[in-house]
Each structure stands twice: as structure tokens, then as C-alpha cells.
């Protein structure tokens, strides 16, 4: 019995993670209470609290160190095998070590992120009313967001091209993003979290070739942010990644909570970023239904907002090279498959589903009939 236990115990964490992935989609109540508000909350408080003390992206450091460490480890292993009279034992021991790391890593991933895909939907947690997204309703929502974004934009400093710039710099923005969540943690306690900052990624410009603006690394409960992107979308991105650290995995819900935290933020820059990004998502949804109506709504944007939108488009155009397009497509396909693997059929298109949540929240806050 002892020998069998010694042989098979390393696979138990992986099997536990597999059982969670199979069973939790059918038990949202258990997921919500036991995992999202239980184990995840406890682990993220410790792990996220510790990693937040370090301003550097630990994730980026690990990624950069992974290749040389892997090559060095393989070289050392091959040398040891050549010198040994029992090479098979060494290969088995090395494989066992890798398997143990992967097994525990998979379980930690499920506890820190995977399980959160299966908790109660955000709309249910917030008691949001049901809303039908007709073109007229979308147009009304877009117009309102455009006007609010234009109003907040008046207070913000500009660069030489007349586009929004960050008054306090990137590092300050990464630290201050959490203030938006603290404005309504009392109303929505499920959004409390220990992570207090987003992490600056040094190779952000190179990262933009993938089309990715941020990444939550579950094993460290770390919110990594591409700080090379325009400020008007950067602040929203930080808030989005912080939503992951608060126990939400679905991208549409993280987009929605980013919007919610931004528009409640004491800083006009964050409020502007929230309204602007919500406007972009809603405008795209309206354009798909009624291009002419979308064109009429776009006139509600101020000239300053238009300059920021133009800057946003110009930024991403610089990566539209054959090499850049190949990288972006590969990255998008991988992310699409990853999201779908957790039962979200829309994959990367689930980001756009935030429009429904924004409309529902708008109906709730304005007491409109659903």
C-alpha cells in the first residue's frame, strides 16, 4: 500500500482539478460559496497581498527566466544521465518532478481562476434587470456614454497631439486603479480583494504585437498590464485585470466590473476611460445592427474624444505588419481556445458581451422599465 501511495499521490492534485472542472459547472451555488468566496478568497488574500508588495511583474520575470532555466536544466540533466550507470532512473525521477509541479500547478490554477468561471453570473449577483438590446436602446446608451465621456474629457490634460495624457504617470495609475473598487465594496462585498495594484510589464510594446493589453496570472494572483497602449484604454485595462484578482473569470464580467469601478473612481481620468471604453463596445454592437444609426450617435462625441479614438486606432495600426498580424492571429486563436475550454462558447468574442451588462446596469440605476 505504501509503495502504491508513493507512486500515485502526485497525480491526486491533477485529478482533483479535473473533477472540479467536470462537476462545478453544474453546481454554481457550491462554486460561489465554497470556492469563489471561500478558498479563492483565502488564497488570494495571502498570495495577492504578498505579490502586491512588489512593484515589478513577477510573471514577466518568470517568463524571461523560463527559457534559459529550461535550457540549463536540460543540459544538466543530460550530463547527469551520461555519467550515471542507471540513466533510466534519472529520467524517471526528472519526469516525476515535472509531473508533480504540473499537477499541483493545475490544482492551484483551478482554485485561483478556473473555478471562478462557474460561479453565479454577475447579473444574478447584482440583481440586474433583463433588457432587450434593440437598436434604439443601444443608440440611447451610446449617446449617453458619449456625452459622459465628453464631459469627463474636458478636465484632462493633453499631449502635443491634443490627446489625453496621464497627469501622474503610469506607476501612479497602476496604484490608484483599486480606488474605484473600494467605492462600492460595501454595496457589493463579493468585489473585495487583497490585490492593490496592477503590474507594469517592461516589454509592453513588444507584447502589443499579440493584441493583448493585460493578463491575469492566477498562480501569483497578479494583474499584468500592457502600459504601452494609449492612456484612454490603459486605465480601463488595469481595472479589468483587477476584476480577475477579485474572483471573476469571464471576460465580459471583468469588462463590466472595469467599467463599473472606473465610473465610480474619484479620478476624472478613470471615469473617462470607463465611459469611453464602454462607448466603444456599445458603438460596435450598434454598428453591427444599424450602421446609419451608429453614425448619428457618433456625432455626440466631442472633438477631444475623437482625437483619442483616432490615437487609439493609430496605435494599433503600427502592428499591422505581416509578422505582427501572424503573431496576433496566433495569440487570438490560443486565447479563443483557452476561453472556450472553460465552457464559454463565444471565446474571445465574450469580451463584447459586456454591452448587455452595461445596458442592464443602466436600466437598474435609472429605474427604466425592462
Summarize the structure.
The protein is mostly helical and 370 residues long. It is built from 17 helices and 3 strands.
Task: Explain the overall architecture.
There is one protein chain. The chain is mainly alpha-helical and 370 residues long. The protein has 17 helices and 3 strands. The protein has a 3-stranded mixed beta sheet, sandwiched between helices. The protein starts with a helix and ends with a helix.
Descriptors:
370 residues; mainly alpha; 3-stranded mixed sheet; 17 helices; 3% strand; globular
SSE layout and pairing:
Layout: H1 2-8, H2 12-23, H3 28-51, H4 58-83, H5 87-112, H6 122-125, H7 135-153, H8 170-176, H9 178-182, E1 199-200, H10 204-207, E2 214-217, E3 222-225, H11 231-245, H12 251-263, H13 268-289, H14 291-298, H15 303-317, H16 322-340, H17 354-366
Parallel strand pairs: 1-3
Antiparallel strand pairs: 2-3
